[in-house]
């Protein structure tokens, strides 16, 4: 195998890894705040892709508007799901919450299948620009923009969580919901805000994913979502840089497996990574050890 | 007088149930073999039996043990492939004799996988366990799709799957398996081990503090669940005749989970009834097929929000307890009647 092929695979890996990282952030934030594995998160991405497709193909809107619409739809959907399905269950056992999340995920998938059909739709290119040649290596514009946008989003999110008042509230709620409420923090609003931010990141992820693989299909979200969750677990649930590292690791691992000609085993290997991480270091690379409360 | 007192003595209770179940088998078998029910409907009845086994076995892990494995279809597919490979290799004449052994082999292999995945998985809890078992189910599927290329001989046939599996699943063998499954799980849950499993569901830390070996009992529950899922898989292979890995994805696990959740996690009768209804309904209403998964997912969300315990909660039906109550009621009435008569007689005197 020659060098340039390896490098181009690595760039592919970084590109899909940054999409995973963006989605993993949503999982990580929601898990951090209400201890819920939000299965529906992956399907929010699917809805975002369909909105972008509808806006561009059926309504012939310009790409920038389509991107904004897709992100707005994701935010709205995320908040609505939280209000309708998760809020009534906040005090029930976690297994009920998890089953509800699975139910919402399947509902979105099957509704999409009913409305748009089981086949996939081609999403037209949303971002275009000149491709670069760095040190003799061809790098596509979408790959660059994907990596840049995800790193920038990550930095902005870190600022939001660490510096803003809302970020402080988010950290307080994830630390101890009851105590946060006693300090005058509106728990409901904070949780909704978390879902909104997570879903906005999913919306950005959805647009970037469509740039790499220009297709929208009802089941595209489930595998993407699960892999992003694996990335979040690998990096350490609840940690922003962890999600980034986890996303890049998963993306690179996939690219390497494809490069050596074992692409049929790709999904299996990703799950094997999950199992190994969970068994040997369940807190992930950057996660904090959580003590169990009685 | 306590209600819980058993009037019908213990062996008799088993005998009553066994006789009634035997009569049910005999009558239904007679009806089916005499051709009163069409072949299509008798097939649906077998399918109902298979789903009952799946739901009841998942109920062990979800309802009684309180975990949420999402890889039940993975255990099912192991049983299905094992049984199908054995059945395809035996001579055409002896398929009837070999089938129970093939089923057993499928169940045991699924149980072994349950043990392999259970030991690491059960150290985790809640969401992590769910995602891990989900991953396991997907890995099984990927392996079944690609194992032939690696090993270099034809075993699972890749994406095309196994075809021309002898169709040996009959009503009788399916419902004998249903009976054995329900009996085994019922007696397990009524035993000391069952109470240990229930205590883990209620509070794992408290159970551990009481000296219950939680890892052992969690693994036990998991293996039992996997074993019966493997049996159901074998029956499914003999029912459908064609297997392909894509039929046993995450969707299938969720379908079974819906049955357990709707019936009530921890209720055997709930699992049996909801498996029956949810299998029969789409078969009877073919036009409903398009909306089936939408309705299933709505059921999950709505049941969880409005009645998280499911339709039956943890209620379990027991024919003998019902009989007990009837006998008590009857006796009570007669005694009251006698008393009234005595009073009347006294008054007359």
Describe the structure.
Chain A has 294 residues and is mainly alpha-helical. Chain A contains 11 helices and 4 strands. Chain A is globular. Chain A has helices at 3-34, 41-58, 63-86, 94-116, 141-163, 165-175, 177-182, 187-212, 220-235, 240-259, 266-280, and strands at 121-122, 132-134, 137-139, 215-216. Helix content of chain A is 73%, strand content 3%. In chain A, helix 10 (240-259) packs across helix 11 (266-280). In chain B, 74% of the residues lie in helices and 0% in strands. Chain B contains 13 helices and no strands. Chain B has helices spanning 10-33, 39-64, 72-89, 95-121, 127-151, 171-190, 192-202, 204-209, 214-240, 250-263, 268-284, 292-306, 319-348. The model of chain B has no long low-confidence stretch (mean pLDDT 84). At the A-B interface, helix 4, helix 9 and helix 11 of A face helix 5, helix 10 and helix 12 of B.
Name its key features.
heterodimer, A: 294 residues, mainly alpha, two-stranded antiparallel ribbon, 3% strand, globular, B: 349 residues, ABC transporter involved in vitamin B12 uptake, BtuC
């Amino acid at each position: 195998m020659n060098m340039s092929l390896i490098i181009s695979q690595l760039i592919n890996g970084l590109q899909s890894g940054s999409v995973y990282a963006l989605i993993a952030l949503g999982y990580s934030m929601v898990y951090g705040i209400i201890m819920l594995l939000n299965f529906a998160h992956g399907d929010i991405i699917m809805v975002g892709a369909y909105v972008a497709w509808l806006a561009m193909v059926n309504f012939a809107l310009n790409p920038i508007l389509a991107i904004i619409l897709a992100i707005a739809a994701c935010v709205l959907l995320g908040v609505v799901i939280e209000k309708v399905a998760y809020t009534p269950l906040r005090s029930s056992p976690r297994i009920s919450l998890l089953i509800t999340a699975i139910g919402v995920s399947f509902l979105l998938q099957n509704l999409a299948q009913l409305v748009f059909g089981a086949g996939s739709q081609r999403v037209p290119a949303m971002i275009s620009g000149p491709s670069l040649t760095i040190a003799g290596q061809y790098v596509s514009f979408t790959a660059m923009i994907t990596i840049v946008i995800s790193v920038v989003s990550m930095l902005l999110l870190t600022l939001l969580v660490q510096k803003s008042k809302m970020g402080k509230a988010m950290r307080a709620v994830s630390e101890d919901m009851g105590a946060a409420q006693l300090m005058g923090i509106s728990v409901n609003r904070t949780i909704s805000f978390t879902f909104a931010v997570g879903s906005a990141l999913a919306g950005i992820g959805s647009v970037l994913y469509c740039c790499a693989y220009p297709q929208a299909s009802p089941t595209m979200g489930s595998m993407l979502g699960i892999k992003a969750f694996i990335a979040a677990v690998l990096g350490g649930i609840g940690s922003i840089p962890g999600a980034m590292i986890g996303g890049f690791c998963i993306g690179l691992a996939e690219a390497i497996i494809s490069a050596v000609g074992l692409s049929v085993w790709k999904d299996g290997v990703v799950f094997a990574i999950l199992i190994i991480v969970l068994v040997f270091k369940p807190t992930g690379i950057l996660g904090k050890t959580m003590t169990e409360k009685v | 007088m306590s209600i819980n007192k058993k009037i019908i003595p213990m062996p008799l209770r088993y005998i009553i149930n066994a006789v009634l179940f035997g009569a049910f088998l005999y009558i239904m078998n007679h009806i089916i073999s005499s051709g009163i029910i069409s072949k299509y409907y008798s097939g649906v009845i077998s399918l109902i039996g298979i789903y009952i086994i799946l739901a009841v076995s998942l109920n062990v892990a979800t309802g009684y043990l309180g975990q949420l494995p999402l890889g039940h279809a993975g255990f099912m597919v192991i049983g299905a492939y094992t049984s199908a490979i054995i059945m395809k290799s035996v001579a055409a004449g002896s398929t009837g004799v070999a089938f129970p052994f093939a089923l057993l082999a499928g169940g045991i292999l699924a149980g072994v996988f349950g043990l392999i995945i259970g030991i690491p998985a059960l150290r985790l809890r809640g969401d992590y366990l769910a995602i891990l078992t989900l991953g396991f189910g997907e890995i099984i599927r990927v392996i079944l799709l690609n194992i032939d290329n690696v090993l270099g001989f034809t075993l699972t046939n890749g994406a095309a799957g196994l075809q021309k599996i002898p169709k040996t699943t009959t009503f009788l063998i399916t419902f004998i398996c249903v009976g054995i499954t329900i009996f085994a799980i019922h007696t397990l849950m009524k035993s000391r081990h069952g109470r240990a499993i229930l205590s883990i569901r209620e509070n794992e830390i408290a159970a551990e503090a009481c000296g219950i070996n939680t890892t052992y009992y969690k693994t036990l529950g998991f293996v039992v669940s996997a074993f019966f899922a493997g049996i159901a898989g074998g029956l499914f292979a003999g029912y459908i005749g064609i297997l392909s890995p894509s039929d046993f994805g995450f969707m299938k696990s969720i379908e079974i989970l819906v049955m357990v959740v709707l019936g009530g996690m921890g209720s055997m009768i709930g699992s049996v009834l909801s498996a029956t209804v949810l299998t029969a309904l789409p078969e009877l209403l073919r036009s409903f097929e398009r909306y089936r998964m939408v309705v299933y997912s709505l059921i999950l969300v709505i049941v969880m929000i409005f009645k998280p315990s499911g339709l039956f909660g943890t209620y379990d039906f027991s024919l003998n307890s019902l009989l007990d109550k009837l006998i008590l009621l009857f006796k009570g009435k007669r005694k009251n009647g006698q008393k009234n008569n005595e009073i009347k007689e006294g008054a007359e005197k």
